[in-house]
Each structure stands twice: as structure tokens, then as C-alpha cells.
Amino acid sequence: MQIGKVQRVKLATVAILALVLAAGFLLGAAWDRRLDAQPMANAEGRDAQQRQRNERRAPTYTRVQPALTPEQVAAADVILEHRKVAARALMKESRIDSLYLAMKASERAFRDVYDPRFAALADSSRSAIKQVMTPAQAAQYDSLLARDRRRDGDGNQGSR
Fold this sequence. Notes:
The protein has helices at residues 2-36, 43-56, 70-92, 94-131, 135-152. Helices cover 80% and strands 0% of the residues. The protein has five helices and no strands.
């Protein structure tokens, strides 16, 4: 009877590991997709967001020192454009698109539970930090937090 129980425990362990691996793979693929490809919904808004992202963050190869020659930059730009086209085509595949939509729904459900609780933790820690400061330090701290929120476009700045 002990052997059967050990086998069940091993099987359960393998099943859990497989689920964790699959979840990690899906989350990694979704994150990679989020970084490299545009979502399918709202094409005009997506293009505007991409233009803003491009203006804020130049490709890594443009920061290489010594700087790339104009010919090297042009060749790298062409390669990057091919990747963007391929990523858009990948996103148009129905299976990929449906997996992406399911992942985003799960992400929204996670954020609905996580974000309010994390915001409460951050607010609590900020209040506690201000308790150890002088009034002038606390005022400057509030000012810095407000500036960070405006810059980052949200109110959840972690442990700042």
C-alpha cells in the first residue's frame, strides 16, 4: 500500500511541476509578446503608442560604443523592421490572438485583486517613512512622490 501512495505523490509532484512549467512558459511568451509585438485591438491607438515608445526609447544598437556607422544603423533598422512585420503577422494568427486575449483577461483579474492590496501596502509604508522624517523632509518626500506619479502616469510607485 505504501508503494501506491508514493507513486501518487510522485505523479502529483510531476503534474504540479508540469503546470508550473506551462504557466511560466505562457507568461514568458505573453511578456515577450507584449514587449515585441503590438496588441490586435485598436490599431490606430496601437500605432500611436508604438510611435511614442519609439520616440522615448531608441533601439539598443544605437547606444553601442563606438557608434555604428550609418550603413550599420541602416542594416540594423531593416532587420528590426522585418522583425516588427513578422511579429504583427504572428499576432494575426487566430490561436495566438485567442491565447493573448485569454492571458490579458487573466492579467486583468490578477490586477483587480493585487493592485488595490499593493497600493495599500505602498501607502502604509510611505506613511510610516514620513513618520521618521522632519516636517520639511516629509514635505519634500511628498513632492518627490507626486512628481514620480506624474512622470510614470500612475499612483503605484512600489516602495518609494
